[in-house]
Design brief:
The protein is mainly α. The chain has helices at residues 3-8, 17-45, 50-77, 81-110, 121-147.
Length: 154
């Protein structure tokens, strides 16, 4: 690994790649869960149907995930939000994409995305199943992205 390049992104060649990638995945998961839950709650509450609700959840997961990625990088690197987006976009798009694909698939298969109300237990069971599945799916992706310097640590 190139220490100079990695120090630019806030991690070093001597760091444990599995721990670093797990931390990056947890950070990514935080943003995704905020958008995912908000989108599903809005969609189901408005009776938009499972596919539209999952689409809304994915859009909001990208918005919140990207925001949680851009702000710390902009502050740490002392750059504009646009420059921070240029630094993180590849890693975030891939990581969030994998996470959202798996989270929505698990939530749908459990029945949470098809719940008639956010007050039905299956809605929350779906989310509870989707969160660890999304983490487990995105963790190796983040490990790979970090190893290839395609993801910035936040």
């Amino acid at each position: 690994m190139d220490t100079q390049t990695h120090s630019h992104h806030g991690h070093s060649a001597s760091g444990n790649a599995l721990v670093t990638s797990a931390q990056a995945t947890l950070h990514c998961l935080t943003g995704c869960v905020i958008g995912e839950v908000a989108g599903l709650m809005i969609g189901i509450s408005l009776g938009l149907g499972a596919w539209v609700s999952m689409g809304l959840a994915t859009i909001l997961a990208y918005a919140s995930g990207m925001t949680l990625g851009i702000i710390p990088v902009a502050r740490r690197e002392n750059v504009s939000m646009l420059k921070a987006l240029q630094i993180i976009w590849i890693g975030e798009v891939l990581s969030i994409g994998v996470m959202e694909l798996v989270m929505n698939a698990v939530d749908y298969s459990v029945g949470g995305a098809q719940a008639g109300s956010i007050f039905e237990p299956v809605f929350w069971i779906g989310i509870a199943a989707a969160i660890p599945a999304g983490f487990l799916a995105a963790w190796p992706v983040n490990w790979w992205l970090l190893k290839r310097n395609l993801k910035a640590c936040h």
